[in-house]
Specification:
Layout: E1 12-15, E2 19-22, H1 23-30, H2 37-44, E3 55-62, E4 65-72, E5 79-83, H3 85-169
Antiparallel strand pairs: 1-2, 3-4, 4-5
């Protein structure tokens, strides 16, 4: 049976994104670096799962150098994209500072508690002294009222005695007796 073949220059590929292309030219342009389209796709995708497999990140922690590395393609070398050494050093310093600040604040809180206790004791002592002063004041008031009452009751007698003495010894009587 005879076959009719269409020359490849006549096969057109129409893309909704890029328009019409000759199929031969389109496929040849897709081949890069001397690799077939299948080899190129194998570098991009995992053959078993179909997942994109071109980018690989790894975290490296050697000799206190903490870095994030990236490899593009399965055969490529890893390249450092970020260093975390400074970040982790800063975080460790922040942690140390925070713990130190917490200790200082804890000590301040204990000092405040002790000062409050001392103030409370001082206030209780002041209250006791004030009550004692009040009691002493009331006792003094009571005593002064008692003495004032006694003085009030004896005042006429004392005045009369004073007058009598002044008359006896004054110039009015000139030493004579009544």
């Amino acid at each position: 049976m005879a076959r009719t073949r269409v020359p490849s220059e006549q096969l057109q590929f129409r893309s909704a994104n890029t328009g019409s292309h000759l199929l031969d030219t389109y496929l040849e342009d897709a081949e890069m670096g001397g690799l077939t389209l299948a080899q190129l796709m194998g570098k991009l995708f995992n053959e078993a799962t179909g997942d994109i497999d071109t980018f690989e990140f790894r975290y490296v922690n050697t000799d206190d150098a903490q870095t994030l590395e990236l490899r593009i393609g399965a055969e490529a070398e890893y390249q450092e994209v970020a260093s975390f050494t400074d970040l982790f050093t800063d975080l460790a310093n922040f942690k140390t500072d925070a713990i130190s600040d917490m200790e200082a604040k804890r000590q301040d809180a204990e000092d405040s508690r002790d000062a409050a206790r001392a103030s409370e004791l001082d206030a209780e002592n002041a209250l006791t002294l004030a009550q004692e002063a009040r009691d002493a004041s009331q006792a003094a008031r009571d005593a002064s009222q008692t003495y004032a009452n006694q003085a009030f009751q004896t005042t006429p007698t004392v005045i009369a005695q004073g007058i009598l003495l002044s008359q006896l010894h004054g110039e009015l009587f000139n030493g004579s007796t009544l």
